[in-house]
Amino acid sequence: MTIYLDFEKPLAEIEGKAEELRALARQNEEMDVEEEAGALDKKASEMLQDLYKGLTPWRKCQVARHPERPHCRDYIDALFDEYTPLAGDRNFADDHSVMGGLARLGDRAVVVIGHEKGNDTKSRIERNFGMARPEGYRKAIRLMDLADRFNLPVITLVDTPGAYPGKGAEERGQSEAIARSTEKCLAIGVPLITVIIGEGGSGGAVAFASGNRVAMLEHSVYSVISPEGCASILWKDAEKMREAAEALRLTAPDLIKLGVADRMIDEPMGGAHRDPQKAIAAIGEALEAMLSELDGKTRKKLIKERREKFLKMGTQVLTA
Asked: Which pairs count as long-range contacts for 304-307, CB under 8 Å and 24+ apart, including other chains?
């Protein structure tokens, strides 16, 4: 059953009526409802285009968090061959909110790392809703070290509301682990490509996203803090999240203007959750293109370009 967002309620009514008509026709073969159902389909398609033509930043946040949106595991299963997961940080434990390992993208051997939110209640709890603990970032560091040693490109898929803020995570050095993961991203001498596939929240995202190329899906978001968190701090009212989302400049077009992201990957009409296979294919094409752009670059040049890219951030002015 399709899950509709708050702003999609009028669309839900129309699509629901079309489905009801077809359900009646299945029960009574003499009924001919295709003309009426087709008219509703056309109206729904037009409404979908109108709704998604100019999404506000807050609505983009809602789309980025859609529970049916493809997650890291979906992209790995569809795009990568011979995926061999590697577990644990060799220090404390294995963090299931971070998955990664060796794989092949086409004819290239790569290391892929990403946040996994889960797709049902059980898996979301197991994956801690995509919020990594220190051992998750230390696992990522271990995998990046492995990639650097064997000269394998690193691909990271970011989808997290932020690093886990729990007591145990803080006791085990959450901020230090995030800092070291970010440092490792900047230090490795192999191509590092990041795609923000949903939410890119705070340092929990930056720890995987300090790459040579940073791409964002059209309706993904990337920000130092969630709109709700920002509103709670600035206005002492989490209900001001719409204003906060506008102020944070967290959408792909804004971040490309600011130099934080390098490219936007188009999503199917209505978001990646409406046509996951099309969204997955678009990311596959973008990954191949970005890897080709970095082919032949020396270790020294890759590190230099990556560092310069991040040092330039904040020097560009975003016009209203």
From this structure: 305/212, 306/185, 306/186, 306/192, 306/210, 306/211, 306/212, 307/186
Q: The domain containing residue 222 runs over which residues?
A: 61-312
In which band, very low, low, confident or very high, does the pLDDT at 320 lie, cut at 50, 70 and 90?
very low
What digits encode the pLDDT tens for the residues 119-167?
Answer: 899 999 999 999 999 999 999 999 999 999 999 999 999 999 999 999 9
Taking only the tens place, the pLDDT of each residue in 185-221 is: 999 999 999 999 999 998 899 999 999 999 999 999 9
Give the angle subtended at the CA of 277 by the CAs of 258 and 8, to the nearest 5°: 70
- What pLDDT score was predicted for residue 238? 83
Identify whether the C-beta of residue 98 lies closer than 8 Å to the C-beta of residue 116.
yes
- Residue found by looking up tokens 């016009």 in the block: 319
Do 244 and 195 belong to one domain?
yes
Does any domain span residue 181? yes
| Spacing of C-alpha 202 from chain mean position | 13
Buried-state track 279-297, b at ≥16 Cβ within 10 A, e below 16 = bbebbbebbeebbeebeeb
Q: Alpha carbon of 72 to those of 31, 77, 236: distances in Å?
A: 43, 9, 34
pLDDT of 319 over the 50 cut: no
119: domain CATH number? 3.90.226.10
